[in-house]
Amino acid sequence: MQHGPAVRRRKLGAELRALRTSAGLTSGEAARLVGWHQSKVSRIETGTSGVKPADVRLLLDAYAVMDTQLRELLMMLAGSDDDGGRHHWWHAYRGVLPPTYRDFISLESQAGAMRTLETTVVPGLLQTPEYARAVTKAAVEGLPEDRLDTLVEVRLARQDVLRADPPLELSAVLDEAVLRREVGGPGVMARQLERLVEAARLPQVRLQVLPFAAGAHIGVTGPFVIFSFSSTSDLDVVVLDHLTSSLYLERKEDLQAYTEAFNALQIHALSPEDSLDFIAGTAAGA
């Protein structure tokens, strides 16, 4: 397990190494093409050193990589601002957001799909402003009002990925506790449940409820997120949130384990149709 930036360097390096190999070049030949020493190419490919977006662009050009989506994804991993900040709006909040949160948002903004198990609160991408405010205020005690406003603003801005073209495909399994926990009071919770009903009807959103009646399940160990990328599965990553940090799992065996766990949760959960009825019924009684 590693923190986000280290994982991203390793993934970026591995992808660049694969592209170089596909281009039929040795690391020495690649270095000569871009005017570097061979050791720099090696350090980038092993993830032992950071790499500037401009350097990634040089390598992609040298390897004749024309796939626009793949280029954008790799530039994102290097921290690119080439698109004028369109995918990097969170940089404006650098002084407010911790690096791990900014890293999470950057992955979320470029992922093609997101699978998440939530056991305590509504997923951030589906929260109403009032619910987001109540959750944030409870999570960080003593937060000044202006800072609280900013964090809620960020939470709502993240939701744009569901309206992008193409939108992020969100699959979420919600423990029944998420629906029953009264956050912000009855009125806030009622509006939040209504929002979930609306979201469940979106074609890019798949919501399933894991009812208490399902008993113990593999998700009792805690929530998690799996990010998948359209261009290559080699960049997929699992994110585990902790109180003060996030951990990123990148090994194939970890990805397989969490993917199988999520698939099992979907089997034990109510169907999307029954889940919609369940959420609507809960809302009616809220």
UniProtKB/TrEMBL annotation:
Q: Which UniProt keywords apply?
A: DNA-binding
HTH cro/C1-type domain ranges (all copies): 16-73
Q: Which residues form a coiled coil?
A: none
The record's InterPro entries line, in alphabetical order, gives: Cro/C1-type_HTH, DUF5753, Lambda_DNA-bd_dom_sf
Question: Per its UniProt record, what SMART domains does this chain match?
Answer: HTH_XRE
In terms of domain of life, where is this protein from?
Answer: Bacteria
**Does the record's keyword annotation contain Manganese?**
no
Q: Which GO terms describe its molecular function?
A: DNA binding
| Protein's UniProt name | DNA-binding protein
